[in-house]
Amino acid sequence: MGSADASTSAVVCDERLSDPCAASRLWPSPTPLWQAAPEDVAVGLCGHGEPSTPQLSGPWRLLLLGDGSPTRHLQSLTGRLVQVEVIAMESDHRSDAEAPAEVAELDPPLVRRQVWLRCGEQTLAWAESWWNQQQAEQHLKQRNQPIWTSLTANRAELYREVDGLALVEAPWLEEGFQRRGPFWSRHYRFFRGGQELTVIREVFSPLLEQWLGPPNT
C-alpha dihedral over 76, 35, 188, 56, to 10 degrees? Predict the structure, then answer.
């Protein structure tokens, strides 16, 4: 996939996934099958080893519960630049039912952005983010640029706080990743100067097992 320039329409639909795009520009959020307790996520754990809890391997735990940039992780693992394909970026008036609870802390009106993250021909992640409209206009002028790159321009200081870990499913994720679900997902917030900038949810492809090994111990 090649990235589009800033003048490209905000809606870029993959031809393989034409049906979801035809139904709605913003796709429904994936359905969670399991979610880690907030207190576990806060200290970087995955369920305290309870029998019913999926146990993450070390590399996957670092990817999902660490505070590093997923864009840089994907580039380091694959040796290729991450390309961002925007599915949609538009006003979001229906986020309460499917958005993480932390989205309620953003000042309305809200904008939601959904993208695929690819390295070469491999689709390695899907992401959606919620923004105050004014903040989105300020920080996402180049819509096909990774959020981390946009927010750290001019070496601006940024703080990431991981808030959620889940196993999710969605038919269009299976089609986009060309793999069966469920898929590991996380959501987190970015802060600058103590102010919440955005809430981001990411879902990762099982293709990452090529570099990280199986996710479950």
Answer: -30
> Hunting for tokens 């993480």 — which residue is that?
100
Cα distance between residue 92 and residue 151, in whole Å: 21
Residue 2's pLDDT band, with cuts at 50, 70 and 90, is very low
| Domain-embedded: residue 55 | yes
pTM beyond cutoff 0.90: no
- How many CA atoms are closer than 13 Å to the CA of 73, on its beta-carbon side? 19
CATH code for the domain in which residue 71 is found: 3.40.1410.10
Q: Are 129 and 112 in contact (CB under 8 A)?
A: yes
For 42, 88, 120, 209, the CA distances from 200, given in Å and listed in that order, are 16, 15, 23, 23
Higher local confidence (pLDDT), 159 or 85: 85
Per residue, what are the HEC states of 7-46?
Answer: CCCCCCCCHHHHHHHHHCCCCCCCEEEEECCHHHHHCCCC
Is the residue at 80 inside a domain?
yes
* pLDDT at residue 11, rounded to an integer: 35
The string of pLDDT tens digits covering residues 52-65 is 677 889 999 999 99
Give 194's DSSP letter. Answer: T
Q: How far apart are CA 167 and CA 54, in angstroms?
A: 9
Answer whether 83's CB lies under 8 Å from 2's CB.
yes
Q: How many domains does the chain have?
A: 1
